[in-house]
Amino acid sequence: MTDVVDLVSQLIRIPSVNPRGRAEPAETPLAEFVADWARRHGMTADLHEVLDGRYNVVVTVPGDSADTILLETHLDTVETEGMTVPPFEPTIRDGLLYGRGSCDAKGPLAVFLTAMAELAAGGPRPHTVTLAGVVDEEHIYRGVLALRDQGINPVGAVIGEPTSLRMVTAHKGCMRCRITARGPGGHSSEPWGKTNPITTAARIVDYLADEYAPALDAKARPLVGPPSLAVTMIDGGSGPNVLPESTTLTIDRRTVAGEDPHQVWGELRDELLRRWPEGVDVAEPHIVDYALETDPEDPFVRSVASVLAGAGHNPEAKGVGHGTDASKIALDGVPCVVFGPGAIAQAHTPAEFVPLDELHAARKVVGELLRSPVLDTKGAQAR
């Protein structure tokens, strides 16, 4: 059996920091490594260019059925500035593996690859299994969107992210946009009769915090709670003695299942322009993501829960506040769960790590799932 810890260590050594829109093939060396590794272990692998020389990698183990289980995770990591451990030199200490991407998400990637390698080596294969390692998850999700364009139609998907070995079936989406207040500007010694954009922006912040956000409690969903809104950035002013001509707020509006982020933006824009009909602009969203809410009674989800319970782990469905690629794959009607070793609290941190015991436990769960028939609605084996 290929050692999952050794493979994570190899993956950490290959930098794959998201370039945030710069034209750099950031994840491609990692995609090429994954493809070569998979082929050496009896699997087929293909590279698919997304943009700027950045490639998704798709690995397949054919099964007795054309029905496919999709394993999906991302190749990119966040930046390494400020890290207190060597970002690309894996370090093991006190049962923890340190390095950038160790839990988000090279740990899940290694879990998927080693489980598939064992499947390829022999034994029952009730399903075809496809792994997609995609680019750009940490920025604007272009890798998973390109994957959707390939038309993969699995019976279910496991999205590799740090979940502390819990089965996540629901998470929030988001709508992020900028609100700009404008004024004539001028000398600060003569402010009378002039609209100060900073004052307008302050009033908008008060409205969002005191009226808009509290009303969101009525939209709460069982696993993730209510939507939320936070003002996350403010920019304005050019000098201490100058009235600014503009002030811009950036907001992060988290959505729940049943909310369309574009509609959320439109309704918020209309309300702000009703209250401030002059001197306020609400830009179209610069980031939009969808919420996830997979039916816990879906046969694929119940199969994952059954494997978790059999391995002694908590099989109950869980919700989280952050987003994943699962929400994009679910748009095509695919039942999705998010699962992996490590905790989201460690992702993006200066000393990112993944526990070794969780790597091994996740590897066992995924390996068992790939050999388990999906259950029908009555609990019988359907495939």
Automatic annotation (TrEMBL):
It comes from the Bacteria. InterPro entries: Bact_exopeptidase_dim_dom, Peptidase_M20, Peptidase_M20_dimer, Peptidase_M20A. CDD domains: M20_ArgE. The keyword Transmembrane does not apply. Residues 169-278 form the Peptidase M20 dimerisation domain. Keywords: Hydrolase, Metal-binding. It holds the Pfam family Peptidase_M20. This is Acetylornithine deacetylase. The lineage of its organism: Bacteria, Bacillati, Actinomycetota, Actinomycetes, Pseudonocardiales.
